[in-house]
Amino acid sequence: MTTWFESPADAAVRLREAGYLTDDATALTAYLSGALEKPLLIEGPAGVGKTELAKAVARATGAGLVRLQCYEGLDEARALYEWNYKKQLLRIQASGGEDSWSETHDDIFTEEFLLTRPLLSAIRRDEPTVLLIDEVDKTDVEVEGLLLEVLSDFQVTIPELGTVSATRRPFVVLTSNATRELSEAVKRRCLFLHLDYPDAERERAIVTSQVPGLEEKVARQLVDVVVRLRELELKKAPSIAESVDWARTLIALEIGELDEETVVRTLGVVLKHASDQRRAVKELKLASR
């Protein structure tokens, strides 16, 4: 068994040192996921730090990071493994028909011809590893079946080679933006953490920790505007990363006061849709450009 964190308090401290400020629930769940060796399913809107938490766990523990970016159409060949068919064909041609099919079959379905993908790579690593299965809700429902063996038994079955079991279980993090409901089978195998946008005080702490040169007054003004923007009906609410980008923008422009004119001039840093910018200008009663 790998010890990832000594306690929830240890998780909070080490994640903070790795640049990720947690609340109590996040620190507790991160600790339990490592202590119980159970995958962690993190759900919440885009931009609240789900992916960043997995990266922070890797930084805090010195583990390697293996990432499977999910998308519609993802299949076994991209998630688990596939065979190097071109190399297999060359091997068959090189044999010149001298070997029997059974001999050729046994020869071409070996490690030499296996192309490992993220899930299998993470299972086979000897060193501490964080396996990030990012945006799992974007895949087809069928793909969840590929995950069950990994999530429950930390193993992968390759028909031609047998079962590959993890010698050192990875710290598994699945993220979901909740665009669709995940199966109960996947949820049963995971601990669950819901992440939402932080309150204003914690977001100020996050922003100032990421942008040390930002004045406290400007940080407070920035977060207050971001909170108001998230209350609007926008296509895409500002993420925490965009709050940080906005703070860096203000530093680059040497702005010491976030007045209405500055908000309007730099609104494109946090709102990426023209309709969202127009709505913000109108509903926050900002001076138009």
From TrEMBL:
SUPFAM superfamilies: P-loop containing nucleoside triphosphate hydrolases. Transmembrane segments: none annotated. Signal peptide: none annotated. Residues 36-201 form the AAA+ ATPase domain. PANTHER family: MAGNESIUM-CHELATASE SUBUNIT CHLD, MOXR FAMILY PROTEIN. This is AAA family ATPase. It comes from Nocardioides astragali.
